[in-house]
TrEMBL record:
Keywords: ATP-binding, Kinase, Nucleotide-binding, Serine/threonine-protein kinase, Transferase. Residues 55-109 form the AGC-kinase C-terminal domain. PROSITE patterns: AGC_KINASE_CTER. GO terms for cellular component: cAMP-dependent protein kinase complex; cytosol; nucleus. It comes from the Eukaryota. GO terms for molecular function: ATP binding; cAMP-dependent protein kinase activity. It comes from Camponotus floridanus (Florida carpenter ant). This is cAMP-dependent protein kinase catalytic subunit. Coiled coil: none annotated. SMART domains: S_TK_X (SM00133). Gene3D superfamilies: Phosphorylase Kinase, domain 1 (3.30.200.20), Transferase(Phosphotransferase) domain 1 (1.10.510.10). The keyword Transferase applies. SUPFAM superfamilies: Protein kinase-like (PK-like). InterPro entries: AGC-kinase_C (IPR000961), Kinase-like_dom_sf (IPR011009).
C-alpha cells in the first residue's frame, strides 16, 4: 500500500545518474495532474515523441523495424529462465502493519 500511495501522490526519486532531459520527460509522464500529463495533452503521444530526450530517435525507422535494439533478452526454451534477464536483489523482510487502514476498500476483494 505504501508504494501505491507514493504512486498516487506522485512521490518519486530519480537516480543520481539521470540527466536533466530524462528527469524532465519522466516528470511529465509521471505527472499526477491528468491535464498536464504527457500523452494526455492535445498532441497525445507526439508530446513524448517530440521531447528532447528522444531528439535522436528516427520513429519511422523504428516503425519499419530497421533499428537494431541495444539489448536483446536471452530466452531459454521459451519461458524457462525468464528471470535470468532481471537483476537479483536480496529480499527485505515483510512488515505487517498493526492496523489495516484499507480494510473497507478491499473487504470483498
Amino acid at each position: 500500500m505504501k508504494i501505491y500511495e507514493k504512486i498516487v501522490a506522485g512521490k518519486y526519486k530519480f537516480a543520481h545518474h539521470f540527466g536533466e532531459e530524462l528527469r524532465d520527460i519522466l516528470k511529465n509522464i509521471l505527472q499526477v495532474d491528468l491535464t498536464r500529463r504527457y500523452g494526455n495533452l492535445k498532441d497525445g503521444s507526439m508530446d513524448i515523441k517530440k521531447h528532447r530526450w528522444f531528439q535522436s530517435i528516427d520513429w519511422i525507422e523504428i516503425y519499419h523495424q530497421k533499428v537494431q535494439p541495444s539489448f536483446i533478452p536471452r530466452c531459454i526454451n521459451g519461458n524457462s529462465g525468464i528471470a535470468s534477464n532481471f537483476d537479483h536483489y536480496d529480499e527485505e523482510p515483510l512488515e505487517i502493519a498493526s492496523f489495516d487502514q484499507y480494510g473497507k476498500e478491499f473487504a470483498n476483494f
